């Protein structure tokens, strides 16, 4: 038969035998070997996975029963490359020895904390009662789940505090820098753009008014002076041709003028 199962957020379509168990589908078909196959009688709980957010013993669930459903294994417990707090708790409190039962223990513990974020030791033991550990006395497993519970509560409190601080400092933090004095103050539209440098004293300042007051007298004097000095005033010094290397008009102009017959 053909089936499609959504495992850890990804969809897988396979042709399988109708009698194939879910644990074998995960391990043999998808190569997700984190889930362990122990007793094959639903006693040990090493094969626990989630089926639509509910822990099940995958050695007693047919793969065909998961067709179109969501499955989560220990490989999908972490998020974004980070360990889940339950995984961190088992590492911090040494909640495992051989590790054979650990994947099922952690998935059941995660399910418990999602529904009861602050469980008591008795509630943890009850939730894990369907799973067997042959190495430990369960004490460190309970401590691991308690550690995960407290760690998640601390992370949640820090997140809420950070959001509160951000909300309180919102106006100052969100004020656009582009609209401040630096962007629209004197530097942008001040004297450099439209002040004296653009249309400064030479154009409209005291010098211009002084020139206006003394204009007629100076212009008349200059005109009469120009008439008296004749061609010499219209040479290179007046027209700027001296910069090109031509002989000044006044160098021989007067003598030439005296030699012209009357």
List the helices and strands and how they pair.
Layout: E1 2-7, E2 10-15, H1 22-29, E3 48-51, E4 55-57, E5 70-72, H2 85-92, H3 102-115, H4 121-127, H5 139-168, H6 170-174, H7 181-184, H8 186-189, H9 191-194, H10 196-199, H11 201-204, H12 206-213, H13 215-229, H14 236-239, H15 253-258
Parallel strand pairs: 1-5
Antiparallel strand pairs: 1-2, 3-4, 3-5
Helix pairs in contact: 2-5
Please indicate the percent range of residues in DSSP E strands (runs of 2 or more): 5-15%
Structural class: alpha+beta
- Order of strands, widest sheet: 2-1-5-3-4
What's the total helix number?
A: 15
Nearest-integer average pLDDT: 76
Helix content: 40-55%
By DSSP, the count of extended strands is 5
Assign the CATH class of one domain.
Mainly Alpha
Give the low-pLDDT segments: 188-206, 208-262
Can you tell me about this structure?
- The protein is of the alpha+beta class and 262 residues long.
- Among the domains are: 2-76, Beta-grasp domain (Ubiquitin-like (UB roll), Roll); 85-164, [2Fe-2S]-binding domain (DNA polymerase, domain 1, Orthogonal Bundle), CATH 1.10.150.
- It is 48% helix and 8% strand.
- The protein has helices at residues 22-29, 85-92, 102-115, 121-127, 139-168, 170-174, 181-184, 186-189, 191-194, 196-199, 201-204, 206-213, 215-229, 236-239, 253-258, and strands at residues 2-7, 10-15, 48-51, 55-57, 70-72.
- A 5-stranded mixed sheet has the order 2-1-5-3-4, with helices on one face.
- It is globular and about 60 Å long.
- The protein starts with a strand and ends with a helix.
């Amino acid at each position: 038969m053909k089936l499609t199962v959504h495992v850890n957020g990804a969809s897988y379509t396979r042709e399988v035998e109708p009698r194939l168990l879910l644990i074998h589908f995960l391990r043999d078909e998808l190569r997700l070997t984190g889930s362990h196959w122990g007793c094959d009688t639903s006693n040990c709980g090493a094969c626990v996975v989630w089926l639509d957010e509910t822990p099940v013993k995958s050695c007693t669930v047919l793969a065909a029963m998961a067709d179109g459903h969501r499955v989560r294994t220990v490989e999908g417990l972490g998020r974004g490359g980070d360990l889940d707090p339950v995984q961190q708790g088992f590492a911090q409190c040494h909640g495992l020895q051989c590790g054979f039962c650990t994947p099922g223990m952690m998935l059941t513990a995660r399910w418990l904390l999602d529904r009861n974020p602050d469980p008591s030791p008795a509630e943890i033991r009850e939730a894990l009662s369907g799973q067997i550990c042959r190495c430990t006395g369960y004490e460190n497993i309970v401590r691991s789940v308690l550690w995960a519970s407290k760690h998640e509560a601390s992370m949640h409190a820090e997140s809420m505090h950070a959001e509160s601080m951000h909300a309180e400092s919102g106006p100052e933090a969100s004020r656009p820098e582009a609209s401040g004095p630096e962007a629209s103050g004197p530097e942008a539209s001040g004297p450099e753009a439209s002040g004296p440098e653009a249309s400064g004293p030479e154009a409209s300042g005291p010098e211009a008014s002084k020139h206006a007051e003394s204009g007629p007298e100076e212009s008349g004097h200059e005109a009469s002076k120009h008439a008296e000095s004749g061609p010499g005033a219209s040479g290179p010094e007046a027209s700027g041709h001296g910069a090109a290397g031509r002989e000044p008009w006044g160098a021989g102009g007067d003598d030439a003028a005296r030699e012209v017959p009357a």
